[in-house]
Design a protein that fits this description.
Layout (H helix, E strand, L loop, with lengths): L2 E2 L6 H7 L4 E2 L1 H5 L6 E6 L5 H12 L6 E6 L11 H7 E2 L1 H4 L4 E6 L15 H14 E7 L1 H11 L4 E15 L13 E11 L2 H4 L5 E7 L3 E7 L4 E4 L9 H11 L25 H17 L12
Parallel strand pairs: 1-2, 1-4, 3-4, 3-6, 4-5, 6-7, 7-12
Antiparallel strand pairs: 8-9, 8-10, 10-11, 11-12
Helix pairs in contact: 1-3
Length: 306
């Protein structure tokens, strides 16, 4: 089934080139079907890239998905033109009275800062509180996951001595969990972060389950009971060359950065990356959409339960 996005969104051309079924807005209007309404709070500086990565995964399921984009009003983007944001993005005030089947809150490059010192922290707190009563299930990614664990449960983040950077093997802890249905015993996912959350802090909250983790990268996937909140500390949505781009960007800036681990063939940055996470990325998003959004959301969105 198709993913419905604004006709002129730059991600549309890239998705169509990959044979992902993108439905024009005009055609979608005439279909007698209620698509899943998914809103993405995009906190990443490279907004078009992040839009494309997430929509690629949302568009590869049997479900029809209608995507809307959300930004914070308390921070002005330095990397995306204001005209673009005004055309394709909503402010929270514009959507706060609406309900959504699902929401994605992305990561953000502010890990070195305390949560409360982030420019848009109070606005983000308002949005995260709003998801409890206006969204069936919310998927949080990387810094977004750490921020939500801190806001909802008081779980702190800790600075790492070195950046957790590369593609790491993960083990499943709850085989029968629907979110991991179809996953292999060992699966891979990219990480790119300077902070972590710790098992002992999460274990203090019986309403949270750790579903998957890595010996090298630590906690990867956490859910609240019932799946209303899902926390992913890595970046399953990343493209093949995303880590490579981050690595070479930091080298050019003279930053101290290690080569991403288990990423390049033969661990040689002159060789191309070995992509080992794509199938599980698609599984993660399709399972989330199917089992935690589609099968849980009411047909009438006004009946969403907190």
């Amino acid at each position: 089934m198709p993913i419905k996005i604004p006709d002129k969104l730059p991600a549309k051309k890239q998705l169509q080139s990959e044979n992902i079924f993108v439905m024009p807005e005009k055609k979608a209007i005439h279909q007698d079907i209620r698509p899943l309404r998914i809103i993405i709070l995009n906190l990443m500086p490279t907004k078009i890239t992040t839009e494309t990565q997430l929509m690629r995964l949302l568009g590869n399921t049997p479900l029809q998905v209608e995507v809307e984009l959300l930004r914070t009003s308390t921070y002005r983007s330095k990397n995306t033109p204001e005209e673009y944001l005004q055309h394709f993005y909503h402010s929270f005030d514009e959507i706060k009275d609406q309900n959504y089947d699902g929401m994605i809150i992305t990561g953000a490059p502010v890990e070195h800062m305390e949560f409360e010192k982030t420019t848009y922290w109070q606005e983000l707190c308002t949005i995260m509180d709003w998801t409890r009563s206006h969204v069936t299930s919310t998927l949080h990614i990387c810094w977004g996951a750490q921020a939500a664990l801190y806001y909802h449960y008081g779980i702190p983040k800790y600075n790492l001595e070195e950046k957790m950077f590369g593609v790491f093997a993960h083990k499943i802890h709850h085989r029968k969990t629907k979110l991991l249905r179809g996953f292999d015993d060992t699966f891979y996912a990219p990480h790119s972060r300077y902070t972590e959350v710790r098992r002992e802090d999460i274990a203090q909250h019986p309403e949270l389950d750790i579903l998957a983790s890595s010996k090298e990268a630590g906690i990867y996937l956490v859910t609240s009971r019932g799946g209303k909140q899902i926390f992913v500390t890595g970046h399953s949505e990343y493209d093949a060359l995303t880590l490579d781009g981050e690595y070479r960007r930091d080298l050019e800036k003279g930053k101290k950065i290690n080569m991403p681990l288990h990423y390049y063939k033969d661990d040689n940055p002159s060789k191309s990356p070995l992509v080992r996470w794509r199938s599980h990325a698609h599984l993660l998003f399709s399972n989330w959409l199917n089992y935690y959004v589609y099968q849980e959301t009411p047909y009438d969105l006004e009946n969403i339960k907190s």
